[in-house]
Amino acid sequence: MFLAQHRIGPYQNFTYLVADHEDGEGVVIDPSFGVDPVLAEVDARKIRVRYILITHSHPDHYAGAKDVRERTGARLVAYRTAPLDQDLPVDEGDTLRVGGLSVQVLFTPGHTRDSVLYLFDGHVATGDTLFVGECGRTDLPESDPAAMYDSLLHRVVKLDDALVVLPGHDYGSTPTSTIGREKRENYTLRPRTRDEFLRFLRE
């Protein structure tokens, strides 16, 4: 598998280029503002981008989607209720095939109502659900703190410890992590009841 992490845009976003091998079929995950470096790598490596995977419907995670779509003909993928012009709406448990890659969708609302994770080949793209050492904000109009509790403490913590975490922003001490490390070190994943978690978020 080929994987490139690009830090682009004014908000320290990570956009990912993933392919089944260096000149094979692939996807772009969360194309942010200033996506030209990603497209340059697509061209240089002759990767055939089939899908644009959006983790949630905040503009900094899809601002470059139009450019990627126009350059590559890729289809836009997002959760079925996302207010986006998606070509392929997806739901919990759906699987996409991209060359030799299999990408699984995991629904994790909280930061937004349409947040998802994408799991593939020992990696998980977490968008703004999970950062290195932190989680996404839940004080926005479209956020749901109770749903974030369920997503983090009933879903994320049950993922394989070995999965490499690919966050949506460069907000942590390292650009990537693992689920196991986050369970040990990320204070937002500490065991809490729902009420304790909601109180923790308010504080």
Describe the protein's architecture and organization.
The chain is α/β, with parallel strands linked by helices and 203 residues long. The chain has one domain: Ribonuclease Z/Hydroxyacylglutathione hydrolase-like (Metallo-beta-lactamase, Chain A), CATH 3.60.15. It contains five helices and 14 strands. The chain has a six-stranded mixed beta sheet, covered by helices on one side. β11 and β12 form a beta hairpin. It is globular and about 50 Å long. The model has no long low-confidence stretch (mean pLDDT 97).
From the structure above, extract its key features.
203 residues; alpha/beta; Metallo-beta-lactamase, Chain A; six-stranded mixed β-sheet
Task: Describe the SSE topology.
Blueprint: E1 2-8, E2 13-19, E3 25-29, H1 36-45, E4 48-53, H2 65-72, E5 75-79, E6 88-90, E7 95-98, E8 101-107, E9 116-120, E10 123-127, E11 130-131, E12 134-135, H3 145-155, E13 164-167, E14 177-178, H4 179-185, H5 194-202
Parallel strand pairs: 3-4, 4-5, 5-6, 10-13
Antiparallel strand pairs: 1-2, 2-3, 7-8, 8-9, 9-10, 11-12, 13-14
Helix pairs in contact: 3-5
Helices and strands: which structural class? alpha/beta
Give the overall silhouette. Answer: globular
Tell me what the CATH architecture is. Answer: 4-Layer Sandwich
CATH class: Alpha Beta
Strand order of the largest sheet: 1-2-3-4-5-6
pLDDT under 50 segments (min length 5)?
Answer: none
Mean pLDDT: 97
Total of DSSP H or I helical runs spanning 4+ residues: 5
Largest β sheet strand count, sense and barrel closure: 6 strands, mixed
CATH superfamily: Ribonuclease Z/Hydroxyacylglutathione hydrolase-like
Question: What is the percentage of strand-forming residues?
Answer: 25-35%
Count of folded domains: 1
Whole-angstrom Rg: 16 Å
Question: In CATH terms, what is the fold-level topology?
Answer: Metallo-beta-lactamase, Chain A
